[in-house]
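Deviations from the work plan: none for this task. Representative record:
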Amino acid sequence: MKNLLITVLITVVLSSVSETVSAQASSFMPRISGADIAIAEELRRKGMAGEHTAYQLVSSLTTEVGPRPGGSPADAKAVQWAVNNLRKMGFDRVWTESVDFPYWRRGDESATLVSHGNQYMALTALGGTPGTPENGITAEVVHFKTLEDLQNAEPARVRGKIAFISNRMQPSRDGSGYGRAVVARSQGPAVAAQKGALALVIRSIGTDNDRLPHTGAIRLPDNGRVVPAAALSNPDADQLVRLFEHGMRPRIELILDVGFAGKATSYNVFGEVTGSESEDFILMGAHLDSWDMGTGALDDGAGVAIVMTAADLIANQSKRPKRGIRVALFANEEQGLFGGRAYLAEQLNNESAGLMQHLFVVESDLGAGRIYRIDGRVNQLGWAMVQSIHRHLAPLGIELGENDRPGGSDIFPMIQAGVANIALRQDASEYFDLHHTDNDTLDKIDPEALNQNVAAYAVLGWLAANHDINFGTGELGPLTLN
Amino acid sequence: MKNLLITVLITVVLSSVSETVSAQASSFMPRISGADIAIAEELRRKGMAGEHTAYQLVSSLTTEVGPRPGGSPADAKAVQWAVNNLRKMGFDRVWTESVDFPYWRRGDESATLVSHGNQYMALTALGGTPGTPENGITAEVVHFKTLEDLQNAEPARVRGKIAFISNRMQPSRDGSGYGRAVVARSQGPAVAAQKGALALVIRSIGTDNDRLPHTGAIRLPDNGRVVPAAALSNPDADQLVRLFEHGMRPRIELILDVGFAGKATSYNVFGEVTGSESEDFILMGAHLDSWDMGTGALDDGAGVAIVMTAADLIANQSKRPKRGIRVALFANEEQGLFGGRAYLAEQLNNESAGLMQHLFVVESDLGAGRIYRIDGRVNQLGWAMVQSIHRHLAPLGIELGENDRPGGSDIFPMIQAGVANIALRQDASEYFDLHHTDNDTLDKIDPEALNQNVAAYAVLGWLAANHDINFGTGELGPLTLN
C-alpha cells in the first residue's frame, strides 16, 4: 500500500462533486432478486466460515515464498505460486502479463551513533535511494521537525550534514495520518539534496514503538537528484531527538549498500471467472510483490488471499454471474505501481474493449483488518446499486460511506483514467505499526477478520456482477489531482 | 533480570516454612510513631510527584550511555555516570569495588533459511555461547517442542543437525512463565552438545510477536561442552514450525561471530545514606550493566533510577534515619551475577560486620511496571513489621503478600546465605515482551509507574531504617534449592 496520500487528496478534490451525486442517489434503489440474495447470503456465510480459507493461502505464500520484492528470485517464485494456485481454484482462465522496471537492491545497511558510545541504531534504506560510499558517510546531524522546516532552512545550516526529519505519524482507523507524514519520506531525499545535505534520515512513517524501521519508496524528482536516505526506527529517532533536547550534537555513521542495478521483469497474474452473459467484469486487485522486510503478510499477502478466495467462492456457486470477475495480482506495487501502470497501458492499447469492460475496480491493500465501510467513485445509478448491495454487507458490520472517496493503490491509475471504483475500507488502526517492517508477518493476521474481508468481497462481487447496472466507467471523466 | 527461575523454585521449596511463620505473625504489629508516618506520607507524595525524578536518570543513562554490556567501553562509562550522579545526590558516601569476569563479545550474527528462498531470519546469539566457524554452519533443522523432548531424543536423530526447541513462554503478571520456559535457553546448549547437534536455535524466551529476538545467558556445564546457540524471534520460530507443519525439511545457515575474549573488570557502585544511630543498613540493589541489545531501560536502567531516587528522597529529609540505606548498583548481572557474587564474597571476608549489618536486601530488577505486592523472607518480627509498613504502601495499590517468597537477582547469593529479604513485586505483564531485546528502550517506561516504584522504595526504606526491629539476617539460615 503506497498511495493513501493520493486517496486523501482525492477526498478533498471531489467533495463538491459528491454532494450532488449522493444527495440524489437515495431516491432509487435497484432491485436484487430473492434468488440472488439467497446466493449472497450463502457466500457471506461461507466467507465467514472460512471454507475456502484465505488464511491457508496467505500462510503458504508468506511461509514458503516469504518476502518477494519486485524482480527478486522470490518474486518469480511468487508469480509461479499465484499461477499454480489460481489454476487449482475455480477460475476459467489464468494468465500473466509481463511488467518491466528498474531493479533496486538492498545490501548491508547500518547506522552508528558515533558521538555517543557507538550505539547501534535500527535503520533501513528507503526504496529507490542511492547508497553511500563504501566507507559510509559520517557527519553531524541537523534536526528538523517537519519536511517544511527543512524546505525553509538556510542551506548553510544543512550543507555537509545529515538532515534528520522527526515528524510523527498519528494513528487512526482510516490511516489518514500516513498521507500527512509520508511527505518526509517521499519528498525529503530531493529536498535534502537541494539544500546540500550529505544524506537524510527520517523518523519512520509508522505508529509503533518497535526497533524495526519502516522502509518505503521515495519520489525521484525530474532532475533525479536525491541523497542517500533511510528511516530510523521510532525509538531510535526519539533517542536522537532526546540528544538534541539534552543539548548534545550527535554524529552518525551511515552505511547503505543499496541502489539500482539494471532492469528486471516480473508479471501481473490474472484469474478470471467468466460472466455467463457478458464480457464485462469487475476487477478485484491486490499486489503480489512485497518489500524485502517482513514476509508481506499484511502488505499485501492478505489482499492476494482475500480477492483470490472471494472470486473462487463465487466461481464455485452452481450459477455463474452474468458478468465476470477478474482477479488481478499486480507486480511491483511497492516501488512505484509498476504493475498497475503497465496494466492500464495495456488496456488503453486495446481498442476493441479495454477499460470499458471494467464495470468497476476494487482493491484490497490495507492489511487484514475488518472492513468497516463501503465508499466509491461511481455514477448515480451505480451508487444506488451500492446502497442496495450494502444491505447485504451490513450484517458484516460495514457501514455505507460516500460516493466521493475512491480507494486503491495499483488500480489508482485506472481510477484517474475514469474507471468506476468501489472501496471496501479496512480498519487500519494497527496496520501502520507493522507496514513495511520486518514485523509484517503472518502472526499479525486475525483469521476471523480475514474471513470477514472475504465475505464482503464475495457478496459485493456476486451482487454487482450478476446485475445489469453500469457503474459509470467512461462517464465519470478523468480524475485530476491538485 | 536473570533468576526468576530460581525465585519460582524457592516459592515451592519454602511453602512449608511459611505457613508457620505467617500464621503467627498477625498477632503483633510493631508501632510506628506519628512523626515517622508523617515523613513516610511526605516521601510517598514526593515519590509520586516525581520531584526527584527517576525518569530523568534513566533517560540520561539510556540516551547518553546507551547499552552497556559488562566489560564494554560503555559499561565503564556507565560506572562513571553512576559515580557522578550519586555524588550529585544526597549520599554521604560513594565508592566502587572491582569485579572481574570473562569477557564475552558479540560480532556479526545471521541466520538464513536456505531451503526456502534464503529468507532472512531474525536471530541473536545466546550470551556465553561459542561462535560458529567463519563460514557458518549450514544444516537441516530438527524440531523439538521442549527441552525434555530433546533430552529424550535418540542421538541419531540429532547428530549433524541444528536442534530447534520451540517452547513458548506464557505471559503473566508475576512473570512466572519465564522460569518454566527458560530452561531451553539455559540448559539447551549443553543438552544439544550431548546429543551431537551442530548448533541449537530456540524460540525466544519472551511473550511478544516482534521480529526482535531475546538474548540471555546460558549455563555452562562442568565439562564446558556446549554448541553455538541462538534465539530466533518468535515470528521466525513460528515460521519454522509452520514449515514442519507443511511437511517441509528446512535447512538453515547460521553465522555467529561471538565468544569469550579474555578477562574484563567492572565495578559495583555504591551510595550510602548513613544511619544516625547504627552502622546497620538496608541494601537496595539494581544492576548497572545491560545486554548489548536495546538500551537497558527496563533491564535495569529503571531499577537503577528507582533505588537511587528513593534513597535520595530519604537522604533529603531533614532527619536521617536511625539505620542506613545502601544503594548497590551491581556489575555484570546479565552474564552470571558477577557483581552480586563478588559483593557476597567481599562481605564474607569482612569478619567484623559483613552480612550481619544488612537488615535486609531488596532489589528492583523486573522492569518499570507498578508494584502490586510486598513479599519477603524475614523472621517473625520482621514480617510483623512488614505488615505495619504495608499500611503505608497500601495507598500505592500494593497488597500484602507472603513471607515465603524471596525475590531479587544480584542479591540472590546473599539470600541463599541467609540474609533477610523483602521483595516489592512489579507487574511484569509486558516486561517479557521486551526483555533482552533491541526493544528495551526508554519509550517503554511509563513515568507514573516509575514514580510509584520510587514512592514504594522510599516508604519501605524510611520506615524500616528508622525502626529498631531486626528482620532476621543471621537467624534465617541458608536457603537451599532442590
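Chain B has a mean pLDDT of 93.
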